[in-house]
Amino acid sequence: MRERNVLGGELESCGTDPVTGFYRDGHCSCGPEDVGVHGVCAVMTAEFLEHQSAVGNDLVTPRPEWQFPGLQPGMRWCVVAARWLQAYDDGVAAPVVLAATSEQVLEIVPLDALREHAVDVPDDLSSL
Known about the structure:
With 128 residues, the protein is of the alpha+beta class. The protein has three helices and two strands.
């Protein structure tokens, strides 16, 4: 069975330019190897990237050995749920694509927090 998103639907692709995801398949899938839960499909902002760098999570510098291109504002990337929540608590959360965010994130991040920063709107508005 395919992984579900936080809205209960099939997990959609987060991004392929650059190719994101723990498994580098474009999806924010969280398998047993992904202990960090790279499940939040976030749209990078300058504020989020600066915050992450300030807390020791450099998302800007390319790391070819991890197939990591380095990120810029506007790019979509599967980020660690706890790191996104940390940014949320500090007032600089990145926008979130709910349809591409893994339901496993809900073990760490409340759905209401994700919805506050949602940039996609589900077909069924009754879930909002």
